[in-house]
Design goal:
Blueprint lengths: L16 H14 L3 E2 L24 H5 L8 E9 L20 E9 L5 H15 L7 E6 L3 H10 L7 E4 L1 H4 E3 L4 E12 L20 E14 L5 E14 H8 L12 H11 L11 H19 L8 H19 L7 H12 L10 H35 L4 E2 L1 H11 L3 H8 L5 E2 L1 H22 L15 E2 L6 E11 L2 E3 L1 E3 L3 E6 L1 E2 L13 E4 L3 E9 L7 E12 L3 E6 L1 H25 L5 E6 L4 E6 L6 H17 L4 E6 H6 L13 E7 L3 E4 L14 E10 L2 E8 H22 L6 H35 L3 E3 L2 E9 L3 H14 L4 E8 L2 E8 L9 H11 L3 E5 L2 E6 L5 H22 L1
Parallel strand pairs: 1-2, 4-5, 10-11, 12-17, 30-31
Antiparallel strand pairs: 2-3, 3-9, 4-7, 6-7, 7-8, 8-9, 13-14, 13-16, 13-21, 15-20, 16-20, 18-19, 18-21, 19-20, 22-23, 23-28, 24-25, 25-26, 27-28, 29-30, 31-32, 32-34, 33-34
The chain binds one RNA strand through helix 12, helix 14, helix 20, strand 32 and helix 21.
RNA sequence: GGGGGGUUAGCUCAGUUGGGAGAGCGUCAGGAUCGCACCCUGAAGGUCAGGGGUUCAAAUCCCCUACCCUCCA
């Protein structure tokens, strides 16, 4: 029940999400906005961000001013993933009406173009005129100090003044980080009626409950916060807005939760048909499971489609958690495994309208989903016995509660979620110490956090210090003239650096390639009027920056000085050879193995390369051979490498491989070897393939499930390796005296000969020991009722001694045997007592005593003991002494018993 | 990036204060059978992941490396 009805126009009563998208785009295009396609979920060049989590993320550099926006007015519907953080704990997803890991954010943006007035009026007009929301249900909030915004709401819209509420910094002030652009914001809310209220008397706008639903946030970026925390006015204030497509859909479709919109219902129905129980639309006992699964398949599908694979770290790990959580909740609904591929197929069907490109790669995504699902099921199967063992252990302690420690162990070490454990142990009457578990979990998190902040070294200079980005000239030149703009020593920005110091240098121009795209940063030297720095690594501390890290070799350098920057040509040469070789390798892999192969990471160094790619199984030697041959055939053509800048659409249409998509950027750099490989790439490359020379694949191995790794050498590194192999081979030939080949035959026959010899040696030894020990039996004597043998033999190692012992003890069914093995400079002692003498005559104490007499140690069990020491001055004396003592002891125990 | 667990026969895994490397399945041979499966007897098969250290003695304890599983960031 909802009063009053939020929508006023009949036409919009049943607005499906597709129409909402169209209406949104066409409205803003109508007011001169440029439509920008959704950027990748995986942010490019931003290590601080796990996923694109808001509509403004692709525009971050544009807001910071380090990059030009596609237009001063833009509109987008950006796909987003949130997987943690204060407002979106993964655990809450599925248990509320509105939390998602994957969602789409509709937004309009102004980069120094229009400001508050237009932003407010566009939003109002869109909501009330285009999608027909009734002004009666709308509320707005403004920042407590923002008089301007409140006045504008009153003057440019028809909202009732009593529906404008002022809120504080927590709700209505937005900032990107601790420094940088920020500003007040203004939110538009829909009053869903008292039925949605938490019922508390204090319930009003700002309350956490569902009654006042925030649907659109308008951010007025008008300040730049500097390091001191002071707000300085931005010269060109900007607008960033965000409205969740899922929320707006739920309002416009008159349903109670996002999960009942057309963005979810087909998935809910599919889950319902698989589990044979329909979704209860919020009233079913297990509805939460439907919601979790539907939500997670959306996020997982998109992430995999964008080239991510489940793994045990970083983004891949978040993806793994999505998939595993979905599978886990699938258990609650008794869904038959694997069920994720079928849901994925349904999702593509739903989303093919707005995202036609999703149709490509369907098989690959389905395969990855299925594999991860099966993998988790295996983990659970493996875990069941462990849980049983934990229960048994608890029972032994007389407790029917599994301890927090063992719950943590099951989860942390073996990946078995607590909920799953609970399901298994509840029927047995067990409960769980959840508090103990949470406590251990907290420690773990704290530890992770500490190690994280501990190693994070932040660049000590603000990103806004540079008014324009550093010009990279390294594609064409290896030398450049520049001026020192920033110097860093230790954790501080400094004016001057001198000999021996570790420093970082930023200059306005640089030919140094900064580490990125898998390619290592350049090395070289920076020379000033009075000093020189050797550059050891180069990276981008912020987008658009290039920082050179190294050590001052001679003299001093100061801010403002002119410098000459020179890249080490042989370093760069090795890097570009290996980089182009990587592209060829990638293309060859796809050709030989299939189009499911995608780059999953790469490392390009001057003297080797490493390439990770998606492929389900190990490569056969034949496949590796074919790939290597193909690449070398390509190299031999000597084809020219073409590098060009194109529009993204044009590049993709030309078949370019693009992974981990860029941002909205229209201009992309395309590296093409005609007929062989086309990739979007910012790295440095050879001009002609002949420069590569040759390529050797060194190894192929697995890095994670579904990901393989190839390591290879190209150019002079490959030649050097070939030379090394040749030298080794000739050394082996010389050693084996097998010149001219047939080394394998030679090894084989040698191996056979060795085996024969070993067998013969074994036979001879056992014969020898038979004879030898037969003689030794004569040395044995009877002491009371015990048969005793103490003897010394020459032997090579303990193994020989044991062989003799085995023979001897089979001849003496009851008794004591002590053998002293004389080896080079050492004595090994071995003692045996038959089972019946275990208590009465434990041989380990004798071995210990003898070893001590020989200046060594020993020990063991009563029936079998070993020890060692240095040889006695006289063997006969030593042995006789031992015999006498043992005899005496034997007689005494006889009397005693 | 930081933890936890693992790596022993072809496979699945035991191996308890450090003291003789094991089981089941599989393989092979023999027996039994018209034949097959079952069954009986026996055998082969191991750099205990690799390297270093401690020790008289290391699968076992310590350190390093590689790989696999898993958690946290």
């Amino acid at each position: 029940m909802r009063l009053p009805s939020p929508t006023s126009g009949e036409a919009s009563r049943l607005m499906d999400s597709l129409r909402i998208r169209d209406t949104f785009f066409s409205y803003f295009e109508g007011v001169a906005h440029r439509r920008v396609p959704s950027a990748s979920l995986i942010p490019s060049g931003d290590a601080t961000l796990l996923f694109t989590n808001a509509g403004m993320v692709p525009f971050k550099d544009a807001f910071l001013g380090s990059e030009a926006p596609p237009s001063s007015r833009c509109v987008s519907i950006q796909r987003c993933v949130r997987a943690g953080g204060k407002h979106n704990d993964l655990d809450r997803v599925g248990f509320t009406r509105r939390h998602h890991t994957f969602f789409e954010m509709m937004g309009n943006f102004s980069f120094g173009d229009y400001f508050k007035k237009e932003a407010i009026s566009f939003a109002w007009e869109f909501l009330t005129k285009r999608v027909g929301l009734s002004p009666e249900v709308l509320w707005v909030t403004v920042y407590t100090e923002d008089d301007e915004a409140e006045a504008l709401w009153k003057s440019v819209t028809s909202i009732h003044p009593s529906r404008i509420v002022r809120l504080g910094e927590k709700d209505n002030f937005w900032q990107m980080g601790n420094t940088g652009p920020c500003g007040p914001c203004s939110e538009i809310l829909v009053d869903q009626g008292p039925a949605f209220s938490c019922g508390r008397p204090t319930c009003a706008v700002g309350c956490d409950c569902d009654r006042y639903l925030e649907i659109w946030n308008l951010v007025f970026m008008q300040y730049d916060r500097n390091e001191a925390g002071i707000l300085l006015p931005l010269p060109r204030p900007s607008i960033d807005t965000g409205m969740g497509l899922e929320r707006l859909s739920s309002v416009l479709q008159g349903v109670e939760s996002n999960f009942e919109t057309d963005l979810f219902m087909p998935l809910m129905e599919k889950i319902g048909s698989l589990s044979r129980t329909p979704y209860g639309k919020g009233k079913g006992e297990k509805d939460f499971a439907y919601r979790v699964i539907a939500d997670h398949i959306r996020a997982s599908y998109f992430l995999i489609w964008e080239g991510l694979v489940p793994s045990n770290e970083g983004r891949g790990y978040v993806l793994r958690r999505f998939i595993r959580r979905a599978v886990q909740f699938g258990l609650d609904l008794a869904l038959p495994n694997p069920f994720l591929p079928a849901l994925g197929e349904k999702f593509v069907e739903m989303m093919r309208g707005p995202y036609p490109e999703l149709l490509g790669g369907r098989d690959r995504v389905a395969a990855i989903l299925a594999e991860e699902e099966e993998r988790f099921i295996r983990t659970l199967e493996y875990g069941l016995p462990l849980v049983r063992e934990a229960m048994a252990e608890s029972r032994r302690r007389g407790s029917m509660t599994l301890s927090g420690e063992s719950l943590f162990w099951l989860y942390d070490t073996h990946g078995i979620p607590v909920d799953v454990v609970l399901d298994w142990v509840r029927p047995e009457g067990f409960s769980l110490d959840l508090e103990g578990f949470e406590a251990r979990m907290g420690e773990q998190k704290e530890q992770g956090r500490r190690s994280w902040v501990g190693q994070k070294s932040s660049f000590p200079v603000s990103a806004s210090l540079l008014t324009r980005p550093v010009t990279f000239v390294g594609y064409d030149r290896l030398d450049a003239e520049g001026e020192i703009l920033v110097l860093v020593h230790g954790a501080n920005s400094v004016e001057k650096v001198s000999e021996g110091e570790e420093v970082e240098v930023v200059s306005g121009v640089s030919p140094f390639y900064p580490e990125g795209g898998g390619q290592v940063g350049d090395r070289g030297v920076i020379t000033g009027p009075t000093g020189e720095i050797s550059v050891e690594s180069v990276y981008r501390p912020y987008p658009g920056w290039i920082s050179h890290r190294g050590r001052v070799r001679t003299g001093t350098l100061s801010i403002g000085e002119p410098v000459r920057l020179s890249v080490d040509p042989s370093w760069r040469r090795g890097a570009r050879i290996h980089h182009t070789a990587t592209h060829l390798l990638h293309a060859a892999l796809r050709k030989v193995l299939g189009d499911h192969v995608r780059q999953a990471g790469s490392l390009v160094l001057p003297d080797r390369l490493r390439f990770d790619f998606t492929h389900g199984e190990p490569l056969t030697p034949l496949q590796i051979e074919r790939i290597e041959t193909l690449v070398n055939d390509w190299i031999a053509t000597g084809e020219a490498v073409r590098i060009s800048e194109k529009s993204r659409q044009e590049a993709l249409a030309g078949g370019a491989l693009a992974f981990f998509g860029e941002k909205y950027g229209d201009r992309v750099r395309v590296v093409e070897v005609p007929g062989m490989s086309v990739e979007l790439c910012g790295g440095t490359h050879v001009r002609e393939l002949s420069e590569i020379g040759l390529l050797y694949v060194l190894s192929e191995s697995g890095v994670a499930a579904g990901t393989r790794r190839i390591e290879a050498l190209a150019g002079s590194a490959a030649y050097g390796q070939g030379k090394k192999w040749r030298e080794e081979l000739s050394a082996i030939r010389g050693f084996l005296r097998a010149p001219g080949g047939r080394i394998l035959d030679r090894l084989e026959s040698d191996e056979k000969a060795r085996e024969t010899l070993e067998q013969e040696l074994r036979a001879t030894k056992s014969h020898l020991f038979e004879v030898e020990t037969a003689g030794m039996l004569g040395e044995s004597f009877q002491a009371g009722d015990i048969r005793i043998l103490v003897a010394a033999v020459d032997c090579r190692d303990g193994r020989d001694l044991r062989l003799r012992m085995d023979i001897l003890k089979s001849r003496i069914p009851s008794g004591i045997i002590i053998l002293a093995g004389r080896t080079e400079g050492q004595v090994l002692l071995l003692g045996w007592a038959s089972q019946d003498l275990e208590k009465r005559f434990p041989v380990n104490s004798w071995i210990r005593k003898m070893a001590a007499a020989l200046g060594g140690k020993g020990g063991g069990r009563p029936t079998w003991a070993e020890g060692g020491g240095v040889p006695p001055s006289s063997w006969p004396v030593f042995l006789d002494t031992v015999r006498a003592e043992i005899r005496e002891e034997a007689m005494r125990t006889l009397v005693g018993s």
